[in-house]
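Our preliminary data section would be incomplete without showing what the modeling component actually yields. Below, a chain of 302 amino acids is followed by its predicted structure, encoded as tokens that our downstream tools consume directly.
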Amino acid sequence: MANRFQKSVPLMMILPGLALALAIIGYPIFDLAWTSMQDVSRFGKLTGFNGGENYHEVFADPLFWESLWRTGIWTFAVVGGTLAISMPVAMILNDDFHGRGLARVIIMLPWAISLTMTAVVWRWALNGRAGLLNATLMNAGIIDQPVEWLATASTAFVVEILVGILVSIPFTTTILLGGLSSMPQDAYEAAVVDGASGWDQFRHITLPLMKPFINIAIVLNVIYVFNSLPIIWVMTEGGPANGTDILVTYLYKLAFRFGQLGKAAAISLVMFFVLLAFTMLYVALVSRNDRDDAAPEEEIKA
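Predicted structure:
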């Protein structure tokens, strides 16, 4: 009896916090689900239950599927590009060199500025008539006439992806730098003695030991980037001609520009379940890979 009580003590201690977290997260989801099945006026008043009509209208709208596809491209490109740049940056900042502290501060500075302010600065810099980028390129003789960077959807979306990568680097670098700082140095010393090259050390020591930190960076960045509104909204508002809309800007337009709050609630719930499915699937795949990697070691020990 005493044993059973002792085992239940940890659960009892975390139960209040767990209940609070479930209430804080669960109530908005429930309210969102209920709103998504209602006719809602422009002022947020529920006028009647309509079943799944909002979902039917959303799924029948071509803009939803275009925005969903573009959201996938946006998320994959920004997260992938961020990781590809942040890893070498973190490895450089982890080395001992003169001015390392200042270099770390400079890398972290963009993180201290709000996304909205960053997007405003880039929108001005990319202005086709008086933008800083055009002026610089023309002075350098690279272009002979101004380029309208945000006038076409294809160019604007690529530029927004690059800005998204830029603002995501500080956060990701911080996570990876924390992982690199905890690396056992004796493993690298042994590798050097064995004649391992820098690439071999990265592939066989750094990368395997950094997997937990890389996984954290991927999951958190996917969540943040998938739901990111300021960059695209401030720079192009999803235009031109909805050509840079992602789900969150499409949702914002429906809710606050067209007053279709029921459809906006339906899209919000779809976005929640997409992220939930991704997180669960990714965690399951990582856990399975970890088990597969651990199996040979257990066989050797046996």
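The mean pLDDT is 87. The chain has one domain: 68-289. Preliminary results of this kind motivate Aim 1 of the renewal.
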